[in-house]
Amino acid sequence: MNKLNVVCGALVIDGKVMIAQRNYGSSQGFFEFPGGKVEENETKEEALIREWKEECDIDIYDVRYLSSSIDYQDGYEIHLTCFTCTSNEKPTKLSVHSEYIWTTPDHIYDYNFFKSDKMLVEALKGVWSCLTKPTKPKY
């Protein structure tokens, strides 16, 4: 079985996380955190930043490891690593997705996710309060 290293990012802005619905292939109709394959000589963080720029045309930052899972699709063993991230802009470009939704972990299962992605959502729920609490100014 072929192995793929894939990354995805849970983009959190204004107390909501963005999910996207795939528009092609065996993943069509499923929601996910955007991302893609890690290329040779590229770190997972570099791959995530590149993929968000390619797929959503935005720059992300504050990339932090969240969780990992393994999935089996179309003859591949997919090693999926999820990060949290943020941005100063929201995506407007749709390339591999048919729509973007802004939601909270409490309502994320209103949308169709792969089992392997549900493990990542549970990890996101575990850190959600840390991602959304207001920061105090340092004086």
Q: How would you characterize the overall build of this protein?
A:
It is a single chain. The chain is an alpha+beta fold. It contains two helices and seven strands; from the N terminus they run ββββαβββα. Strands 1, 2, 3, 4, 5, 6 and 7 form a seven-stranded mixed beta sheet that branches. The longest helix has 18 residues.
Helix share of residues? 10-25%
How much of the sequence lies in strands comes to 35-45%
- Radius of gyration, in Å, reads 15 Å
Uncertain regions spanning at least 5 consecutive residues? none
Q: Number of helix segments?
A: 2
- Class by alpha and beta content: alpha+beta
Summarize the structure.
The chain is α+β, with helices and mostly antiparallel strands.
Topology:
Layout: E1 2-13, E2 16-22, E3 31-32, E4 35-37, H1 44-56, E5 61-73, E6 76-86, E7 97-103, H2 115-132
Keywords:
single chain; 139 residues; 7-stranded mixed sheet
